[in-house]
Amino acid sequence: MESTKHYALITGATSGIGLELAKLFAKDNFNLIIVARDERELESTAQILKGQGVDVITISKDLFIPNAAQELFDEIKQRAIQVDVVVNDAGQGAFGKFIENDLEKELNIIQLNVVALVTITKLFLKDMVARGTGKILNVASIAGKAPGPYQAVYHGTKAFVHSFNEAIRTELQDTGVTVTSLLPGATDTDFFKKADMLDSKIVHEQELADPAVVAKDGYEALLAGKDMVVSGFKNKVQVTMGNVIPDSMQAKQMGKMQEPLKEEDR
Question: Which pLDDT belongs to residue 261?
Fold first, then answer.
């Protein structure tokens, strides 16, 4: 028998947008399953969230590893827990010219940003559709709306995620299950450090968004069952302009925004 307690599952829940989303769910009395690689960070995050009076289950999984997403699903099923909301927040980038970047690192990013997300979405979605209820929030990015020199693979993965979200949402009409696509812009998280991107112009010359604000936008869109939300006015303008500007021009503009700082400017 399934547990009478229902849960929201959040990957990448120990920092950035994922952590802020977890706080919002906890504040609204959702029980949580939080997933990340670092067990100590998971435990410290769990203690913060438990302060809201909710149950918090921690699962340490490295979603860069093939089959880790399947293992995550299997472990939750073995515990007979019903997951009513899935948030796929875990994601990473790799900074630099595609021809110079390490292939294995970029393939790992595809594994995390695409393969793990698709696997988790499919496995939990089947249960949701069978019950006739459920919500999924997949974190895409405005990066998926434009080609991104110096982050070619990351931008490509986020383009996939958003297109994937919109496609399966249409397939799910009349099932009682919704899929929402969250498109943040550059946000003040540890993303840039993990991507070895601290010397990029975008970090030094742009105002980075507050992850709490981005999370709130995504959370409200999820609960409302919206198809997508672009977080931030400037990002909304950028996406709107991108709909009429040729991809080649967008790529050049994005390349200027993301290129490395000159040595004298570092």
Answer: 87
1 domain-assigned: no
What angle do the packed helices 152-171 and 103-110 form, to 10 degrees?
20
Model pTM? 0.93
Give residue 266's pLDDT band: very low, low, confident or very high (50, 70, 90).
low
Catalytic residues: 154
Residue in this structure with the two tokens 């995504």, named with its chain if needed? 218
Distance between alpha carbon 187 and the CA centroid of its chain, in Å? 12
Give which of 132, 134, 138 is closest to 124, Cα–Cα.
Answer: 134
Q: Are 116 and 63 in contact (CB under 8 A)?
A: yes
In a domain, 165, yes or no: yes
b/e sequence 74-105, b meaning 16+ C-beta within 10 Å: eebeeeebbbbbbbbbbbbbbbbeeeebeeee
CA distance 48 to 140: 26
Q: How far is CA 155 from CA 128, 209, 216, in A?
A: 29, 18, 23
Number of domains in the chain: 1
